[in-house]
Amino acid sequence: MPRPDLNLLVTLDVLLTEGNVARAARRLHLSPSAMSRALARLRETTGDPLLVRAGRGLVPTPRALELRERVGQLVHDTEAVLRPAQAPDLAQLTRTFTLRTSDGFAETFGPALITRVAAEAPGVRLRFVQKPDKDSTPLRDGEVDLETGVLGPAMGPEVRVQALLRDRFVGVVRAGHPLSKGKVTTKRYVAGRHIAVSRRGLEQGPIEQVMGPLGLARDIATIVSGFATALALARATDLIATVPERHTAGLRAGLHSFALPVPVPEITVSLLWHPRLHADPAHRWLRGLVLQVCAA
After folding, report:
1. Do the Cβ atoms of 110 and 251 come closer than 8 Å?
2. Are 192 and 172 within 8 A, CB to CB?
3. Phi, psi angles (nearest 5°) of residue 144
4. Are strands 57-60 and 193-197 parallel, antiparallel or unpaired?
5. Which of 50, 70, 194, 196 is least buried, going by the fewest C-beta atoms within 10 A?
6. Do 148 and 164 meet the contact criterion of CB atoms below 8 Å apart?
7. pLDDT (0 to 100) of residue 154
């Protein structure tokens, strides 16, 4: 059995509403002859005359009366499905969003973001999960709604990206450390023992990329996987941590921070999400909140 032309539903709805071929043709911007042909197709498809002559007008058949309300609801529902999504009712929204971020991002920007979400959408809950790598598989598989970080080669090409903030690296030592007093020169910085941060356990990072061509090298005492761990070690030892300034603002409380004596390029921290969620109104609202919080 051939599949019926669903476009005929709109034509049938207008015909049954108007009860007149000429008026229905005007509403659908068709000629009267084109509307007559459409009515003939509807009669063939439904197996019922639908509208029959009565004097100078047309009257609906019992089958047409039976269909009129159902067809009208079907057309209404179809238009609602195809209409662009409306802004969500935040007061009634109940949803959990998973954000994959570093500990530093969650501690620095999380409190303000949670406060904003609670004020605008009390039924929304944020779930922060750790980010052990730059693989975009969790975004693609729907395990994660949003992610923050510096772009890397493992990021899938389909992932949507929005720059959040620019950040610079700073040196950090415990209160009372020799580098907490006086100007930190390249000689003093290199003379200390350092904490390297690398998810993959590598000694070579952005600092070495700058210092290498200058004939300089840090004395790496230990390698850790995250900035939070690096700062915890710097707080308890004489080791020097080098971390992003804005990204670790909350974690550096009580520590001494100083500008690096070598010109390390700034980094761009971005917001990432999968295209499947790009047009989702609630997801778009959350992305906007993250941008506002980071801009502040």
Report:
1. no
2. no
3. -130, 140
4. unpaired
5. 70
6. yes
7. 63
Locate tokens 């003939």: which residue?
A: 40
Q: Is 197 helix (H, G, I), strand (E, B) or coil?
A: strand
Q: What is the DSSP letter of 61?
A: -
Distance CA 134, CA 153 (A): 8
Nearest Cα to Cα of residue 253 among 104, 149, 100: 104
Which one-letter DSSP state was computed for residue 253?
Answer: T
Euclidean distance between CA atoms 270 and 34, whole angstroms = 55
| Cut 0.90: pTM above it | no
pLDDT beneath 50, residues of the chain = 1
Laid out side by side, the sheet with 256-259 consists of 219-224, 193-197, 240-244, 169-173, 256-259
How is residue 86 annotated by DSSP? P
Structure tokens at 159: 């992932």
CA distance 76 to 274: 31
Residues 6+ apart with CB under 8 A from 266: 166, 167, 168
The Cα 76–Cα 56 span in angstroms is 31
Please report, as a single letter, which amino acid is at residue 294. C
pLDDT for res 286: 96
Nearest to 105 by CA among 226, 217, 275, 248: 248
Among candidates 186, 183, 226, 182, which has minimal Cα distance to 207?
186
Separation between Cα atoms, residue 179 and residue 192, nearest integer Å: 9
